Predict the structure.
Amino acid sequence: MKQPKIAGFEFAEGVRFQAGHHPDPNIVGQHIEMLRKKGKGELTPKDVLADARHDNSPLHSFFEWDNSEAAEQYRLQQARGLIRAVVAVYVSPNKQAVRQRAYIHVPAPSAPHYRETTHALSQAKTRQLVLDRAMNELKAWRLRYKDLEEFAGFVKIIDVIDTDFPKSLDKIGE
């Protein structure tokens, strides 16, 4: 079976770049495709980073080259991972203990932050922010895997949820 040919490139929905950085997705995509072909069909993050080290690479500006700032950003990423890794064990009388992520990301437009999960979900405003983010992640998953026929059933369920969100969440639970 003949593989379809790439007609052009776009950036994935929701992708974020540094402020003031509006790259051409076709230039970036073509360059990464060239790296993939150079690697005999395989591409690794090390390949991309090695190329991006050159000032004249179209990928250069996507990376932080100030080592102090890069180290700080990496540590912040590690801190986010640590926050996400913590699970709380909730207990209440006459009920089995429940394990749940202790903190949840609240994507508030002015100041994204983490809150204790049960508190965040008990407040209408933060609950809606969390639900909207979860729905956007679900849609992104659908787009990423929609072409895999093994997931066709999941894609249909996501479409049902998306049609009438959040009322559809009640239908799924029935």
Q: What stands out?
A: Residues 1-65 form one domain.
